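Standup, Tuesday
Yesterday: got the pipeline producing structure tokens again.
Today: sanity-check two examples.
Blockers: none.

Example 1:
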Amino acid sequence: SAAYGVLAVIGVGLIAAWWTSWRGNAAYIENVAQGMETVRRQVQETPNRASSDLLPLLPALQATRRLAAAHGPVADVLWSLGFGLY
């Protein structure tokens, strides 16, 4: 009987952790989606030519990196996001 109580508490705790993670990850995905148009525009404006000069690619690459790091480096991700996407 006590074991069922412990299992119920663990189950409720896991559901709460997954729900918290889901909410945080949904917010992260929304942040990334909002920045996608800016990155898409920068990529489309990048000259499309055969060249060894990589300098024209840097703004689009930096925008893509910033987009992926919307919450900062992966090492700095909140523990509460770790039960889902991260």
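Example 2:
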Amino acid sequence: MDQPTPGDATGHPSHLNNRCLTNADTFRAVLQRDRDTENRYLLTVELSSHKQGMENSSRPETGEFAAFLAEISDSALKFRNLDVLREEDL
């Protein structure tokens, strides 16, 4: 079975808003492809606050989207709960 890639219509981060972030005030999604490892992608979703992130994590749509990502992934998904320590425009 052909699996959708993160860059196509079913996996592109522009569809995150419809899948799991419908209640988020502000978010930023960045999809990156590893240049050194074929078929390795990193999706980073940044919400406006820790509280909003925790609320979003408990939404059924977020669980459904995680299940979708797990289906098209060759290995286990890894989730991180990170605090921004510093942000600069260089």
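Quick observation on example 2: Residues 27 and 47 are 4 Å apart (CA to CA). The longest helix spans residues 60-72.
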